Amino acid sequence: MSLTRKRVMVTGGAGFLGSHLCERLLREGHDVLCVDNYFTGRKDNIAHLIGDPHFEAMRHDITFPLYVEVDEVYNLACPASPVHYQYDPVQTTKTSVIGAINMLGLAKRIGAKILQASTSEIYGDPTVHPQTEDYRGNVNTLGPRACYDEGKRCAETLFFDYLRQHHTRIKVARIFNTYGPRMHPNDGRVVSNFIVHALRGQEIALYGGGAQTRAFCYVDDLIDGMMRLMATDDGFTGPVNLGNPHEIPVSELADRVLRLTGSRSKVVHRELPQDDPLQRCPDIALARRALNWEPRVPLDDGLLRTIAYFERMLAERGEQAAVAS
Ligand SMILES: NC(=O)c1ccc[n+]([C@@H]2O[C@H](COP(=O)([O-])OP(=O)(O)OC[C@H]3O[C@@H](n4cnc5c(N)ncnc54)[C@H](O)[C@@H]3O)[C@@H](O)[C@H]2O)c1
Fold first, then answer.
1. Can you tell me the distance from the alpha carbon of 161 to that of 159, in angstroms, rounded to the nearest whole number?
2. Which of 23, 35, 40 to mutate to test the pocket of ligand 1 (most atoms within 8 A of CB)?
3. Residue 240's beta-bridge partner residues?
4. Residue 78 CB less than 6 A away from ligand 1
5. What are phi and psi of 229, to 5 degrees?
6. Which is the closest atom of ligand 1 to the Cα of 92?
7. N or C: the chain end with fewer CB closer than 10 Å?
8. Mean pLDDT within 53-65
């Protein structure tokens, strides 16, 4: 065992981001404990890690206390897409709030460093662009997205109260739209939606005309940012925005996906869902300065890797991609 080997726990480790994080931590020589209740996470995401003597997967719901010994905790457990977090909104809030209390309690007891996967959703439908970390947000507390947005806001509060009250070693990352292989095919998020529909030759739905903008960060870049944040001195807690500041209209994303897949899918127009933000873009000056981090993977490259993943997934399910060869 190397002197720098750490015991690292990743909650939500079988999910999209968590599985990439587990993989990367193992590659860097750490012992990884993946904790997940498999609500949206899949065993397939971590199947290739099972058998590695430094990897352990544990089925556990973080709304219940957990007693383990680790050096670092990445708290990612929480459904992240509207279809999933609105499926059982009470459980979503519980996962963010009670889950944070349980994980912070654990970190406090064992003196571990703990990083919270917060979200750009805490800014709600923002009235300033791009969003800096000191912007306090514009969240509808009563809407269908509030279970996620307010749960994550309360989790941030808990992190900073544990810091003030118990001197727990905390880090808070505010993650913006991230995409890549292992996204859930039915999560309704715009990148996976467009790609899967394009590959199947199904209609691509543009909500509200597609003029609303988004900025997309490739998963490898995001994981790199989270690990840099975890490695900072105890004096640096964040919150720090992690995301890609290069903003594009959603209609341009549709065009790119159609071009890169060679799909002949039709684009159709639908009404914008309630509380869907019109614009979302991170200011990453703090991440650049404090973490020496910025996204590096160009959008087309990341999309091609994600398309290849979904092509393989559809093929394994016996579905032929309905695109021009
Ligand atoms: N992907 C993004 O663009 C994005 C953006 C902002 C924030 N985030 C945050 O990053 C984290 C991971 O997101 P993701 O995209 O990988 O989502 P995901 O749904 O793929 O992963 C979440 C994981 O948490 C697990 N989980 C849910 N509730 C749990 C519970 N109570 N106990 C244990 N495990 C539980 C799920 O089974 C899943 O494996 C989430 O906290 C999310 O809020 C993601």
1. 6
2. 40
3. 173
4. yes
5. -65, -45
6. 28
7. C
8. 98
CB-based contact 236:170 (threshold 8 Å) = no
| Any atom of ligand 1 within 6 Å of the Cβ of 191 | no
Sign of CA dihedral 30, 164, 139, 229: negative
Closest by Cα among 282, 307, 89 to 177: 282
Q: Which atom of ligand 1 is nearest to the CA of 17?
A: 16
**Side-chain half-sphere exposure of 43, counting CA atoms within 13 A:** 4
- Alpha-carbon span 254 to 323, nearest angstrom: 15
Whether ligand 1 lies within 6 angstroms of the CB of 213 is answered as: no
Amino acid at 10: V
Backbone phi, then psi, for 17, in 5-degree steps? -70, -40
CA distance 148 to 150: 6
Q: CA angle, 117 as apex, 174 and 154 as ends, to 5°? A: 80
Give the DSSP letter of residue 305. H
Report the catalytic residues: 148
Q: Among 120, 286, 267, which Cα is nearest to 198's? A: 267
38 ligand 1 Cβ < 6 A:
yes
Mean pLDDT to the nearest integer, 255-281: 87
Specify the range with the lowest mean pLDDT, choosing from 13-27, 255-269, 276-290: 276-290
The alpha-helical segments, DSSP class H, found in the chain are 16-27, 43-46, 82-85, 89-110, 146-166, 190-200, 219-230, 250-261, 285-291, 299-316
CA atoms within 13 Å, Cβ hemisphere of 1: 9
Cα distance between residue 179 and residue 17, in whole Å: 9
DSSP state of 271: P
Structure token digits, residue 160: 């900073």
Rounded to two decimals, the pTM is 0.95
